[in-house]
Specification:
- The protein is an all-alpha fold.
- The chain has one domain.
- It is 79% helix and 0% strand.
- The chain has helices at residues 2-13, 22-28, 31-48, 52-64, 68-85, 88-105, 111-125, 133-141, 146-178, 185-194, 200-219, 228-243, 247-253, 256-275, 277-289, 293-310, 313-330, 334-337, 339-351, 360-371, 378-403.
- The protein is globular and about 65 Å long.
- The relative contact order is 0.14.
- Mean pLDDT is 84; it is low at 12-17.
């Protein structure tokens, strides 16, 4: 809000107080990102009411038949897939609470399941255009379709997910072996009741509309290049008309604070671009990289990863986009391969795993653990996060060098 007040009122008093006019500031906002996220928020809010993700998590527990390692691998995979096709924060909010209950019931340290789930949410979010805000921001900026993004990013996300599961086995193998194979019937019944599907009719409608929405995401180019935001809002609107939820509740479920934060962030970065600060920084990076696309790609990947470990990856991604534009336009073949943008996405998404400050899912999970009585310290999270980040960034670097 302060961004808008300074932009609008400052310019009214004196032109020297304004870097951008209000109209110029609004042109810097990527409305495709805003409306895409809004559409997915509405869809997720309706789907979450059915309790389907808790139901899936409990069914995975039953299917594991007391094999804790298999259960952990299944929950990690479920979190990654949910993050890819809905949203990483939503995946954590829906899956982690039941995972904590299951861990406590089998005498397993919850960190052995929750931390890998958080890491999986960031990796899975990189797989699709709608999975993680950095993916959405960069994908929208360069006009990627859902299918085009998936072809380029899903393979490396799957590779990193497999690496995470292997790392998790090595890290927590003894703890998994020491966990209980069975829990008391009373507690089992309690968990089963808490994980029942709440509204089958709403779930069926949401699945039908979800399938239609993803078909539209994949075929948007064949239908005249429909923007992803239009597809998401169309799906959300159809679902609202069919399900007819309580609209006051729906409006409360939309995270307006996040949407306004995104708008303000675009304006701030637009101001930096208008003052020439972004161009200056891009020129310094270009000097270091010389004419080598490979060096520029590695610098983008690792700088993005390191910075995203310290500060939230969303503001970093928005700030780094203009720099990626300059590098892509000036380096040989970088514009056609879009390798700098792929490097930015992977660096921001994977780097967010190093510390719990790196991305929103990390912070949400720490809060959920605290509510359950488990304090996850900065150092304890980093003990798993940093090695996984280094491993996945190394795999991503190799992928970028070989693929592009």
């Amino acid at each position: 809000v302060a961004v808008f007040l300074v932009t609008y009122i400052g310019g009214k008093f004196h032109s020297s107080l304004s870097i951008l006019t209000f109209e110029e500031a609004m042109r810097f906002v990527d409305w495709n990102v805003i409306f895409l996220i809004m559409g997915m928020m509405i869809f997720m809010a309706i789907l979450a009411e059915t309790n389907v993700f808790k139901w899936l998590a409990f069914r995975l527990y039953r299917a594991s038949r007391g094999n804790t390692w298999l259960l952990a691998a299944a929950l990690i995979t479920l979190t990654g897939i949910t993050s890819a096709f809905l949203n990483d924060v939503t995946a954590i909010l829906l899956i982690v609470p039941l995972s904590i209950q299951i861990a406590v019931a089998i005498d397993l340290n919850p960190f052995a399941i929750i931390i890998p789930e958080v890491l999986a949410s960031n990796i899975g979010g990189a797989a699709t255009l709608i999975g993680d805000p950095p993916s959405t921001i960069v994908g929208s900026h360069i006009g990627l379709s859902f299918g085009e993004y998936l072809v380029h990013m899903a393979p490396i996300a799957i590779i990193c997910m497999i690496a995470l599961i292997i790392f998790n086995r090595l890290q927590y193998g003894k703890e998994y072996e020491g966990a209980k194979t069975k829990i008391s019937p009373t507690l089992l019944n309690k968990l089963e009741l808490e994980s029942e599907i709440v509204n089958h009719a709403t779930l069926h409608k949401a699945l039908w509309i979800g399938a239609l929405t993803f078909i539209l995401f994949f075929t948007a180019d064949l239908l005249g290049g429909i923007p992803p935001s239009v597809v998401a809002l169309t799906g959300a609107t159809l679902l609202i008309l069919w399900v007819r939820p309580d609209m006051h509740h729906m409006l409360r479920e939309v995270d307006w604070t996040t949407l306004i934060f995104f708008i303000g962030l675009f304006v701030v970065v637009g101001g930096l671009e208008a003052t020439g600060a972004i161009g200056w920084l891009a020129s310094r990076i270009q000097i270091l990289a010389g004419e080598s696309v490979n060096i520029a790609t590695m610098m983008t990947t690792w700088i993005s990863g390191i910075v995203s470990a310290i500060v939230a990856n969303i503001p970093f991604t928005v700030a780094a986009l203009p720099i990626a534009d300059v590098l892509s336009a000036s380096l040989p073949n970088a514009a056609t391969s879009r390798v700098i943008y792929w490097a930015l996405i992977l660096g921001a998404d994977l780097g967010g795993n190093a510390t719990y400050l790196g991305s929103a899912p990390n912070i949400v999970a720490v809060g959920l653990l605290a509510q359950a009585g488990f304090r996850l310290s900065f150092g304890r999270f980093a003990r798993d996060g940093v090695p996984v980040t280094i491993l996945t960034l190394a795999l991503a670097s190799l992928w970028l060098l070989l693929r592009y």
